[in-house]
Design brief:
With about 650 residues, the protein is an alpha+beta fold. Helices cover about 35% and strands about 25% of the residues. It is built from 16 helices and 25 strands. The chain has a six-stranded antiparallel β-sheet, sandwiched between helices. α2 runs antiparallel to α6, α6 runs antiparallel to α7 and α10 packs antiparallel against α12. The longest helix is centred in the middle third of the chain and has 47 residues. About 35% of the residues are buried. Keywords: Hydrolase. This is SpoIIE family protein phosphatase.
């Protein structure tokens, strides 16, 4: 009989002495306590490896990490503190944190911790495509499972490069999972191919990696929010600058536009190809930004239009690998991804904006900000043409027409493809360009639907610019904010900070409704817009729902006006949202159309589809006011659950 009893065998995983149910190859056993095949060691003293923690130590380690996760650290500080904590606990020197961006299809090395400072300098940030050809790293992310592997087993050149640079022979990989989605991964580098410590390292990391995932996600969202805020400020500043300057200096105007664009999307090169309809040549403006050395260079050239035929025929915005369009390389536009945005001016001039990123791709929020700014840039270029070629009166009329067209493109052209709903939207501006706004926004995963209506103070071009910018903000915020009130609060922050010192402050009322298409929950928040109507088909009754809140842009803090309510919305029910341009429309006797007339018209048309309901209400309104001039924008939205 062995000198050591079977009960003196200790499981390195659970630290309990139990009789294994069987012996397998190379000293691996099935532990009856933790129900896994693992390494068992014979020990006379019940102890485990140097890093494995007992229950009390695990609790202490968890609390030590909680103090980190509950702090308000930025992304860089969070990764440094966490890797330092893990390195100290595991007695390891080389720890890497990767961050996943599924939208861009990439995995980026965001932080590398090592006491060997030359390694931290040598391993600058690099990016892997989210492609299984990269081997085990991407497979671990895709499978959402920890793994240990040897670099010698991997065929992709990345592993050979990494091994030579760091001296790594093997690596432990733990995906960082939030809601079962991989937001990143932690790796520990080993200088040997078969270290026995990785089992213990994995178990210790598992204790805190879930909490780190929450903290990392929150920090990433905060960073994304800061980027969006930067985009909003850039848009606002650019709108003011471009509307006041450069109208009589065409080349400087173009350079300013390109410089602002490159700042919005952090591109290394921005280019505008300008092709007048009556010319055989195109003018090419380029701005180069050295993001590392903060250097800026501009270049202007003139080339034959036939050399750029393929690009000049572009009709829609597109992102592409520059190498697939050889002429881009000829123009000096190189990198990992380029975005091409075509614009045709009123005088027939074709303008093609091209931007490039060296090492990454364009995320959705940058593309949205880019689209919004290009719309503003188009107005400026049109205004510049008008300034040079038209009389004051003609220029003003043309400006309004251009802005009206652009604004109409910002409103929903088609109803969203939300199964089980029918939509109607209607707006008639009072002065060609309106300050009213409505929208239907379906989330990319089709799980949420946002419906809104709003009214900007004032009318004309100024109100239209505010409306366009608020639309861009709203479309960005619905991707990252969980409640309508949080979105309204952020829009208030933008309006107040942007216009508090303006000669003419800008305010906006709004109602924002969020449908959870999975749970059928409906959340409503208001910002001083008043009420809307809810027709309940089962009861054959119409209810006026007051939303409350305060008008956005008046106060820096609207938290005390917070309002959130739930709406029971059943099959056959219909809601009607409207602006005060409907109820305050006046006839020749100065009598207002009023809510009673609106309610009556709504009920008398309730059997029709939402779009037809709005058309008939407008016909009733026009019959009431007759030939009287319209003094305010008329906007209505109707939604029915089928």
């Amino acid at each position: 009989m062995n000198e050591e009893s079977d009960f003196e065998r200790i499981c390195l995983l659970c630290a309990e002495p139990r009789v294994p149910s069987g012996l397998t190859q190379k000293g691996r056993f099935f532990c009856q306590t933790c129900q896994r095949e693992w390494i068992l060691e014979k020990r006379k003293i019940p102890r485990v490896g140097k890093n494995v923690l007992n229950s009390e130590e695990k609790t202490e380690f968890l609390l030590e990490n909680l103090s980190l996760f509950n702090s308000s650290l930025g992304l860089e500080d969070l990764m440094f503190r966490f890797s330092e904590l893990i390195a100290d606990r595991l007695k390891k020197d080389k720890i890497a944190i990767f961050i996943t961006n599924l939208e861009l299809g990439e995995i980026k090395l965001a932080h590398y911790y090592s006491k060997q400072k030359y390694l931290q300098r040598a391993i600058k940030r690099f990016t892997l495509d989210y492609d299984l050809s990269y081997g085990i790293l991407v497979e671990a992310m895709a499978n959402r499972e920890p793994c240990f592997y040897k670099f010698s087993d991997q065929t992709h050149p990345f592993y050979s490069f990494y091994s030579k640079l760091t001296g790594t022979k093997s690596q432990l990989v733990l995906p960082i999972l939030y809601a079962n989605i991989a937001v990143g991964m932690i790796t520990i580098d080993y200088d040997e191919e078969d270290p026995t410590e990785y089992i213990e390292d994995e178990e210790i990391l598992k204790i805190v990696v879930g909490q780190f995932a929450v903290s990392l996600r929150n920090s990433l969202l905060f960073s994304k929010s800061k980027n969006q805020s930067k985009h909003f400020r850039s848009l606002h500043t650019a709108a003011l600058t471009l509307s006041q300057l450069y109208l009589n200096n065409h080349n400087e105007m173009i350079r300013m536009i390109l410089l602002t664009l490159s700042g919005i999307v952090d591109s290394s090169i921005s280019c505008l190809i300008e092709y007048p309809i009556d010319s055989s040549k195109v003018k090419v403006f380029k701005v180069y930004r050295d993001l590392d050395n903060y250097e800026l260079k501009t270049h202007t050239d003139s080339i034959e239009s036939k050399e750029l035929t393929s690009i000049l025929q572009t009709k829609e915005i597109m992102t592409i690998d520059p190498i697939k369009i050889p002429i881009l390389g000829t123009l000096g536009i190189v990198g990992k991804e380029s975005i091409i945005v075509p614009v045709k001016l009123e005088n027939g001039t074709i303008c093609i904006f091209i931007l490039a990123k060296q090492d990454t791709r364009f995320p959705n929020e940058e593309i949205e900000a880019l689209n919004a700014f290009v719309s503003l840039a188009r107005i400026t270029m049109e205004n510049s043409n008008l300034y040079q070629n038209l009389s004051n009166k003609e220029r003003l009329e043309k400006e309004i027409e251009i802005a009206k067209e652009i604004q109409s493109n910002l409103l929903p052209r088609h109803a969203p493809e939300a199964e089980g709903f029918s939509f109607g939207g209607f707006m008639v501006p009072a002065r060609g360009i309106g300050g009213d706004y409505y929208d239907f926004i379906l989330s990319p995963n089709r799980n949420e639907l946002f419906v809104c209506i709003g009214d900007v103070s004032g009318k004309g071009v100024a109100a239209g610019l505010v409306m366009a910018t608020v639309r861009t903000i709203l479309h960005s915020l619905v991707r990252v904010k969980d409640s309508p009130w949080e979105i309204l609060n952020d829009i208030n922050n933008y309006l107040y900070s942007s216009y508090k010192e303006a000669i003419t402050p800008r305010f906006m009322s709004m109602i924002l409704i969020r449908w959870n298409l999975v749970t059928d929950e409906v959340d409503v928040s208001g910002a001083g817009h008043g009420n809307f109507y809810h027709y309940q088909v089962n009861q054959k009754s119409l209810h006026s729902i007051e939303t409350g809140g305060v008008i956005l842009g008046i106060s820096p803090d609207i938290s005390k006006f917070k309002n959130e309510s739930k709406l029971q919305f059943h099959a056959g029910d219909t809601i009607l949202l409207f602006t005060d341009g409907v109820t305050e429309a006046r006839n020749a006797s100065e009598k207002q159309y009023g809510e009673p007339s609106l309610e009556k018209s709504f009920l008398s048309n309730i059997e029709f589809e939402p779009k037809k309901i709005l058309e008939n209400i407008y016909l009733d309104l026009k019959a009431f006011v007759k030939e009287q001039e319209q003094h305010d924008d008329i906007t209505m939205v109707a939604v029915r659950k089928i």
